[in-house]
Specification:
This protein is mainly alpha-helical. The protein has a single domain, classed as Glycosyltransferase, CATH 1.50.10. The strands form 4 sheets. It has a 3-stranded antiparallel beta sheet. A two-stranded antiparallel sheet has the order 1-2. The longest helix is centred in the last third of the chain and has 25 residues. The two termini are 13 Å apart.
Length: 407
Amino acid sequence: MNEFKDKILNSIFKLDSWIECNGWSGYDPYDIKSLKWIRKIIELSNNNYALVVIREIIFEIFYSFPMISRKLTKIKPQINNKGMALLARGYLDLYRVTQKNDFLEKSKFCIDFLIKNANKKYSGFGWGYPFDWQSTSLIPKNTPNGIVSTAVGDAFWSLYEFTNEQKYLSLCKEICTFLINLPIDYIKKDQICFSYAPSAINHIHNLNLFIAEFLIKVGQEVNNGEWVDLGLKAVNYTVNNQLSNGSFDYNGPPEKPYNFIDNYHTGFILRMLHNIWKLTENQEIYMCLEKCYKHYIDNFFEDGKIPKLHPNRKYPVDIHSCAESINCLTQLKQTFPEGYKIAQNISIWTIENLQDETGYFYYGIRKSRFIRKSYVSKVAYLRWGQSWMLKALSNLLVEEHESNDLE
């Protein structure tokens, strides 16, 4: 008997049961920031220190009292396209291991929802968030963006690989059409950076690599050299802006350094670099991957089991970091096998410390800036926590299943 595999499977069954009772709608850490007065404070605080203080006090209240805040501000639970994409992928992986038709039906339900809710107002098909988003500029709700669209694309791609049905490949091609029509900054002859959404130019490394990876793999599959070439140029931009210690800032030049290096965005970058290296067998990409991986392992985990959000401090311990650490280190197992034990340790720690008896996963462990004490934030964020953990644990389960088959 594989006790570890049984523990993971039991956790997944509990989470699935909670999702079934809860439904597909849920709260999100960023939904409350869609309020007009909050967006105005965020906008004005960019050049006003006093408003920065007010903004952070308001956010701390939101973090400390998430449910009360949402009820007072009349925020409603919503279905999130990215959450549905992650659930679709997770349920498909669960079907592959368990052969339970219920999981396949849930995966296809999520896929059908995404197909019906594609935004076709731009070139190709894209998906966005169900709330307004304040970045460098306002991104209205449901505006398609590269992050959500590539997550949806990953779900379609997985189903295409599993079924070999051409309709899923056709959907991936529509997503590529959307991606290549996003604003692109042509940095150098062989370096470009894709932007987040159709509204403005920006330079975000994890987004750039998500788009690059998707264009390269779909481009190779359908023999579209233009998509592959654009993807490789995007990779060149990010690889050439790796920091000396192996990490990546959240954004890249010519923007001012953000000086924000965190767990889950680093995990995203590692997974995409690993996929792209396997697609291209490019040694420069591997060297970049290896250097980033070493920084990740050396700086983001306490006691080899607790993911830190930032290298220099433990709190907050965020469920998003837990899920992405499991995803990343599991996916990289064949190349960097020593990290897989950490993924296993994180999964056990997360189940034991952040899973409610009803099945859902808490937001995480935060440290109050008011009283300087840590506390468990027990709010259930569907996209941020539940969908990511279902994907992470199902990913881990597939690896355990396949490893046992080889023994």
